[in-house]
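Teaching soon. Got one?

===
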Amino acid sequence: MLQLRYSQRVLRFNFPARTSRGALTEHVAWYLHLTDAQQPGATGLGEAAPLAGLSPDYRADFEARLARLCTEFNNAKFSAEAAPEEVLALIEPEWPALRFGLETALLDLHHGGRRQLFDNPFSRGEAGVPINGLVWMGDAAFMREQIRKKLTEGYSCLKLKIGSLDFATELQLLAEIRAEAGPTELTLRVDANGAFAPTEALAKLEQLARFQLHSIEQPLAAGQWAAMAEVCRHSPVPVALDEELIGVTNPALQEALLEEVQPAYIILKPTLVGGMAAAAAWWQLAEEWGISWWLTSALESNIGLNAISQLAGEYALPNFPQGLGTGQLYHNNLQSPLRIEAGQLHYNPQGEWELPTPDA
C-alpha cells in the first residue's frame, strides 16, 4: 500500500529575481514523499512549488489542499499497480503544481525511488542536455555582469529577460552581446513576460529583429488571442507562447488557441501546465500544427528541475537548448548530482542527493 506525506522548504534567492511582474526573494517548495510498504527504504519524491504571480495554485490554502490530498490518497489505499491517471484524478486541473508533484513522486517510486525517472542517456550520465544561459532583469551593470559570466562559461544560447529597463538600454545590451558574438556563435532569446502593449509590440519587434534573435517569449500579456495572433503573423522575430498556456486545460481550448494564434513555438513548464503528461499533450498538439516547443523550469528546486531535465532527456530535440539553468538561483537549494558544464546540464546517477525530511 502506498503512503503519501509532505514537507516544505523556503528557497532563498541569491539575488532578487526580477521579471516584468516584480521581484522574488524567496520561493516556497512543497515536497511529496511517497512510500510503499512493499519497497522498504525507497521513497518517491515530487515537488510542488507554485510560483507567485503566475501559478493558478499560488494560493493561501495551498497547504490545506496538499494536506487534504495526503488524507484522501492514504484513505484510498492505492497499490503500486494503480494507474497514474486514477491517482491524479484526486487533483483538480486548477492545481497544476500539485499534479506535477504527485505525478513525479509516482514515477520516481516506480523506478525505485532513486531520482532516475527515465532511462535515457541523460539520466544514465552519458549525455548532457543543452540549456540557455538565463540573464535576469536588473540595472544595466548587473545584466552586463551576468552576460559576461555566461559567455565566459561557454554558453552557446542566452536568454535575456526584457521589459523592466527602458527599451533603448535593452537594445544597447543586445548590441553589446552581438558585438561579442554573432548569430552563428551565439543564439539569443528574449523574454518579455507580457510587457509590450499591443499597439507598440510590432514596432519594438522591428527594432529587436536586427539582432537576429531566435525568438521572443510572450511579447503581450496572456489572454489577448486576437492581438497575439496579429503579432505572430507580422513579427520579424519568431514568437513563443509561455504564460498564454497557463490555465488552458481543456483540449478543445488548447487546439483553439494554437489554431488562432499560430506561434512559432510553445514553452512548456510542467509546474504551470499540470505535469509531464499535460506537457506531452501540449507538445503533441503543437507538433500537429507544425509548432516547435521546448521545456523550461519554473524556478523549482533541484527535485523539480531534475524531473523536467530527465523529461527533456527523453523527449526533447537533442541539440535544442532547453530552459533548465535555474539550479544555481538559491543559496539553500537541495544538493544534487546535477551540474552545468559549457552550457549543458549533466546528471550523475551515482551522485549524492540531499533529501528533504517529511513532516511527521
Notes: The chain has eleven helices and 13 strands. Residues 20 and 111 are 39 Å apart (CA to CA).
